[in-house]
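An instance as discussed:

___
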Amino acid sequence: MRRAALRLCTLSKGLLAPSRGLTQESQNPENVFHIREAYSPIHVNHVRDKLREIVGASTNWRDHVKAMEERKLLHSFLAKSQKGLPPRTMKDSYIEVFLPLGSQPELREKYLTVQNTVRFGRILEDLDSLGVLICYMHNKIHSAKMSPLSIVTALVDKIDMCKKNLSPEQDIKFSGHVSWVGKTSMEVKMHMFQLHGNDFSPVLDATFVMVARDSENKGPAFVNPLILESPEEEELFQQGELNKGRRVAFSSTSLLKMAPTAEERTTIHEMFLNTLDPKTISFRSRVLPANSVWMENSKLKSLDICHPQERNIFNRIFGGFLMRKAYELGWATACNFGGRPFIVAVDDIMFQKPVEVGSLLFLSAQVCFTQGNYIQVRVHSEVASLQDKEHMTTNVFHFTFMSEKEVPLVFPRTYGESMLYLDGQRHFKSMSAPVTLKRNYVVEP
């Protein structure tokens, strides 16, 4: 079973306490770094402009081939080893981004739901862009006009929501920094706050893993090492090491590689026995228990054409767009299953393959586990080109939702569905103890 992660959201006396799901409280990372100088936040609309400037990307789709050709000339700026790169501190990559929903009402429509709440899918897009920009700040080369690195999102390790409402009429602030580095990868911690009265209150904590590639995005590239300046930073870095180990352990016990545990096998067998028709003596005669739904009946699917408008700075489809589309389908699936849902946690989103512009994006969402008020939704992403029609998996998304009322149990029919059930149960159990849903907790698609 996956261990609950240590969260900056519960930082107390310089130590991190375990927590997942709707976390209790958060602390601005400025206090962790003892930052005294004043930071001027970047407007959210300027984040992607800065990224285009850093890599020399064009805003005109017709110029993308020329822009990529120019990046080939940056190979000479790539380090031959990590030892040749100057070390950086966590403060060097620290960024604040401002989303003025309250002070600039013209921004609201992009983020607004019909229930007058904030679209969480749009927040995922902003987090993805911010994570990439933070990594470019960590690896900034002052002697080069453009960065020779191609930094992309490899994994959304986890996003945990705090117990605060999210209003479309109050300003929002994001902050983040690099918290761990390997040779070619970086972990990024990001936090989101919303203005309540005169103070910014915590909304979510996020951990992303980014990888550095060469200027043509064809092979790995070295990143700057990280200097730790305080016990708090050492704790954050150590947590990054633990996160890496946890991911390796979780992958090694994947149900795609290993058989279920004895306890899990017992769970599946008991569920199978509970669906046998007591009127017949047959393994083929199946009936649903009361207040239950067959897993196969909890699916929703969607299809999108990946237009150039949704491209990233490297002319592949923007990872934030993929997350938004997957989240919105997952939310609709949970809503269709158990009433109006609220996002509690996002975890273990692996970006396995880039999505090319012009691809067909197939998304399939399914409720794979439920318990009490909780709904675990798995969204599977495939792409196919218009030429060869071959389908390839690009992502698997895991979302934990909570309903205001108790939801039906979900029962698998086949062995494959049973494995989906156990995988959903494992992701659900990666949270800490269940929490009480606050009525003002209103983060929606």
User: Anything to note?
Assistant: Confidence is low (pLDDT under 50) at residues 1-21, 23-27, 433-442. The chain has nine helices and 19 strands. The two ends are 29 Å apart (CA to CA). The longest strand covers residues 199-213.
